[in-house]
Amino acid sequence: MRTFLILMMGVLLMNCNTATPEIKDQTTTIYFIRHAEKDRSEPGEKNPSLTEKGLARAKRWSEIFKNITFNAIYSTDYTRTIETASPTAYTNNLDIIKYEPEELNTIEIFKKGYENVLVVGHSNTVPKLVNKLLKEDRYEDIEDNNNGNVYIVTLTNQEVVSVNLLTIK
């Protein structure tokens, strides 16, 4: 009888649902933009603010992104990038996370489980960050007079599945 009970317990245990839960595909979309038009009236100024046109563009970015719920907004620690990110951060009720371009780990951003992230950088740092994700040198530095590029990189399970480059006038 004891052997029978042990055998039955074994059969019951084998029939229990011990399968691991299905792992859902995780998708994160990162929107990379360059800061808006900066004040160039003092050529030696290392940390200028945005011009009126730049402030208007920053507001326009928040309008363009109005249907996207951002989980995080990253900006370098410069007045022009923070001013560019601020309207969108305000709309999403988020604090701006400051980063150093050479230290930004986009895979760590993905691992945080964010769905949508905005990264505001510079003419040379934005393409480098996108290229780093792509693991290829696809994009060159942004032209100095171009403040309207948005690079949209979508990752699923840490792999890049799409990249789009749009220019907004």
Give short descriptive properties of this protein.
6-stranded mixed β-sheet, 169 residues, alpha/beta, disordered N terminus
Structure description:
Pfam families: His_Phos_1. Keywords: Signal. The protein is an alpha/beta fold and 169 residues long. It contains 5 helices and 6 strands. It has helices at 2-15, 52-64, 79-91, 106-111, 125-134; strands spanning 27-34, 72-75, 96-98, 116-121, 149-156, 159-167. The chain has a 6-stranded mixed β-sheet with strand order 3-2-4-1-5-6, sandwiched between helices. Helix 2 runs parallel beside helix 3. The N and C termini lie far apart (82 Å).
First and last CA, distance: 82 Å
Mind describing the biggest β-sheet? Answer: 6 strands, mixed
State the share of residues found in helices, binned by percent.
25-40%
- Provide a count of the helices: 5
Runs in which pLDDT lies below 50 for 5 or more consecutive residues are: 1-23
Short description:
The chain has 169 residues and is of the alpha/beta class. The chain is 33% helix and 22% strand.
Q: Which helices and strands appear, and what pairs or packs with what?
A:
Layout: H1 2-15, E1 27-34, H2 52-64, E2 72-75, H3 79-91, E3 96-98, H4 106-111, E4 116-121, H5 125-134, E5 149-156, E6 159-167
Parallel strand pairs: 1-4, 2-3, 2-4
Antiparallel strand pairs: 1-5, 5-6
